[in-house]
Automatic annotation (TrEMBL):
Pathway stated in the Swiss-Prot or TrEMBL entry: Sulfur metabolism; glutathione metabolism
Family the UniProt entry places it in: Belongs to the gamma-glutamyltransferase family.
Catalysed reaction, written as an equation: an S-substituted glutathione + H2O = an S-substituted L-cysteinylglycine + L-glutamate; an N-terminal (5-L-glutamyl)-[peptide] + an alpha-amino acid = 5-L-glutamyl amino acid + an N-terminal L-alpha-aminoacyl-[peptide]; glutathione + H2O = L-cysteinylglycine + L-glutamate
Sequence positions that bind L-glutamate: R126, D466, S490, S491, G512
Residue segments, region Disordered: 24-48, 396-416
Keyword field contains Repeat: no
Name of the protein in question: Glutathione hydrolase proenzyme
PTM: Cleaved by autocatalysis into a large and a small subunit.
Signal peptide extent: 1-23
GO biological process, one term: glutathione catabolic process
Active site: T424 (nucleophile)
GO MF annotation list: glutathione hydrolase activity; leukotriene C4 gamma-glutamyl transferase activity
EC number of the protein: 2.3.2.2, 3.4.19.13
Organism name: Streptomyces alboniger
């Protein structure tokens, strides 16, 4: 279980009812000169909390997978920070307690709602390939190298985008200095957090890889052994890295000694010679890091049941795929549908959306991505007519042509969906002024590349393995092949839903390609099926990604609905856990509801600044 027990937090006090800071307007984006205050012993002793999946109250809200991380964000809100400030503090803390899912060595996508302007904006902080990369990046002798070998290598490491995302968000919408917001995570890394069964299990699943890299073994296998549940895990190297970033700014990762350490580790992975492991070198340069930039871009927008649904535009396929599926489902009254019909329609809409994303979505700097057309209701209607209530579509399904849609038409040949790693983390924040953030960040696989930057306390990503190693079908154009400076396609879909320009709900999830189906199912459960947000998140999930079989969690695998769907023609395989969502919901009277998982990853951590009954 994921930190399901009471934990001793090393952050500032957050237990019980927190004091709400009164103000009439959001703080100015101008950076204040405040200095962080180190918590006293009494504050640390009081800083204990249970991990709970739902919280309601005033003053703002934070939902993440981890109570230490949620507590960091809540403390920022309590001290007058806004939702962006809280998101950065929470993300930095997740880099400590969830180092196998996220960290400064990775990237992500950031979606922001501005209560002052009622505008939704996004930051694409996706990692990029080296300038020397080409479509054959993962080919040897004309054939793709084994996926696992690409993961544990320098070859799969992209230029990180997370630190640049933090600074870009703070420059645009924040109210506090980065150094201040990194302090909770810095303290947490230095003082340590309590190891739970999930952290130990994730370490154990990476043990063989970690032992082959001395820096990883030293950090994650203290004394040469797996960390013991209940023990305190410390990362002083990461604490120093955060302190340096706070003092020098994120440019330290892109220009300074830290950049040199990063590049050296990528290009000459520090593997133990006695291990026998062949860790392919990367070809990342200091120029690659120095030239990296996030992309500020417009979100995708889909109208659904009178609501405006905003998410990430390409390079992520999250916004276009969720949006297309919602448009397909718009014609069906899911609120009155039986459970079997609801899931059948959900599965088929997902299948179609994945068929279309595989053909059309890649990095728009390299590919002609018809995002607007993919999100048109006309195109959705041309695809929706493929769905029959008494039959199941066959995968791989051929894509449609969003530029020239024809009723029930397809274009070209079908290609299967390529594999994506399933580990990431998502956080959602809101403040007392009504600003909202949905932010998903990642280092790709659980444990990323398995390679720790020596003396720096964080793992390298393996995000470039999200590229297609080779076309899924030689006869079908693949928009997701590697290229110089190219961003690999993602499925990340942080989502904010508005009604009349004001927030209704915001959510997102980890899970590789299952992110799209998780967000889609949670949204339709909340909007169409009338489930409370925490129950929409907890509902057993299905995931169809243009594959022969649909994945089902145990709650559906063992249900009568499964047999009903099989009688139509569906085929299933079991997946023990799909995604790990978090969200916030705006309630009347200025209240916020924070929601997280009840059980997945051991349950999430939902907190509000000033709880109410």
């Amino acid at each position: 279980m994921r930190r399901a027990v009471v934990r001793n937090l090393t952050l500032w006090a957050v237990g019980g009812v927190l004091v709400s800071v009164g103000a009439a307007a959001p703080p100015s984006p101008t950076r204040s000169a405040e200095r962080a205050t180190t918590p006293t012993g009494a504050e640390r002793a009081a800083a204990t909390t249970e991990k709970v999946p739902v919280a309601v109250g005033h003053g703002g809200a934070v939902a993440s997978v981890d109570p230490d991380a949620s507590a960091a964000g809540i403390e920022v809100l309590r001290k007058g920070g806004n939702a962006v400030d809280a998101a950065v503090a929470t993300a930095a803390a997740l880099g400590v307690t969830e180092p196998y899912s996220a960290g400064v060595g990775g990237g992500g996508y950031f979606v922001h709602y501005d209560a002052r302007t009622h505008q939704v904006s996004t930051i694409d902080g996706r990692e990029t390939a080296p300038r020397t990369a080409d479509s054959g990046l993962f080919l040897e002798n004309g054939k793709p190298i084994p996926f696992a070998e690409a993961v544990t290598s320098g070859l799969g490491v992209g230029t990180p985008g997370t630190p640049a995302t933090w600074q870009s968000a703070l420059d645009a919408w924040g109210s506090k200095r980065l150094g201040t917001l990194l302090k909770p995570a810095e303290h947490l890394a230095r003082d340590g957090f309590t190891v739970d069964a999930t952290f130990r299990s994730q370490t154990e699943s990476n043990e063989k890889r970690f032992r082959d890299f001395p820096a990883s073994a030293k950090l994650f296998l203290p004394g040469g052994k797996l960390p013991v549940v209940g023990s305190t895990f410390k990362n002083p190297d990461l604490a120093r890295t955060y302190e340096e970033l706070g003092r020098k700014g994120v440019g330290a990762l892109y220009h300074g000694q830290l950049a040199k350490d990063f590049v050296r580790t990528v290009n000459k992975p520090p593997v133990d010679p006695a291990s026998g492991r062949v860790a392919r070198p990367g070809d990342l340069s200091l120029r690659d890091l120095a030239s990296y930039g996030v992309k500020r871009q417009k979100p995708t927008k889909t109208r659904y049941r009178g609501l405006d649904v905003y998410s990430m535009a390409p390079s992520s396929s999250g916004g276009t795929s969720v949006g297309e599926a919602l448009n397909i489902l718009e014609r069906t009254d899911l609120s009155k549908a039986s459970k079997t019909k609801y899931l059948h329609r959900f599965i088929e809409a997902s299948r179609i959306a994945f068929a279309d994303r595989g053909r059309w979505v890649g990095d728009p700097a390299f590919e002609d991505v018809p995002a607007k057309e993919l999100l048109s209701q006309r195109f959705a209607d041309s695809r929706e007519c493929l769905i029959k209530d008494d039959a199941v579509l066959k995968s791989p399904l051929a894509p449609g042509d969003p530029r020239r849609p024809t009723a029930c038409g397809t274009r070209g040949k079908a290609a299967p969906t390529t594999y994506e790693g399933e580990n990431t983390t998502h956080l959602t924040t809101a403040d007392k002024w009504g600003n909202v953030v949905a932010y998903t960040l990642t280092i790709e696989s659980t444990g990323g590349s398995g390679i720790t930057v020596p003396g720096r306390g964080f793992l390298l990503n393996n995000e470039l393995t999200d590229f297609s190693f080779a076309p899924a079908s030689p006869a079908v154009h693949d928009p997701n092949l590697p290229g110089p400076g190219k961003r690999p396609r993602s499925s990340i879909a942080p989502t904010i839903v508005l009604k009349h320009g004001k927030p209704v709900v915001a959510l997102g999830s980890p899970g590789g390609a299952t992110i799209i189906t998780t967000v889609l199912q949670t949204l339709t459960g909340f909007v169409d099926r009338g489930l409370p947000l925490v129950d929409a998140i907890a509902a057993p999930r299905a995931s169809q990604r243009n594959a022969a079989q649909t994945e089902l969690e145990p709650g559906l695998w063992d249900s009568r609905t499964k047999a009903s769907l099989e009688s139509i023609g569906h085929s299933f395989k079991r997946n023990p856990e799909i995604g790990a969502a978090t969200g916030v919901q705006r309630l009347p009277g200025g209240k916020w509801l924070a929601a997280a998982e009840k059980e997945r990853r051991g349950g999430g951590s939902a907190m509000v600044v000033h709880p109410t009954d």
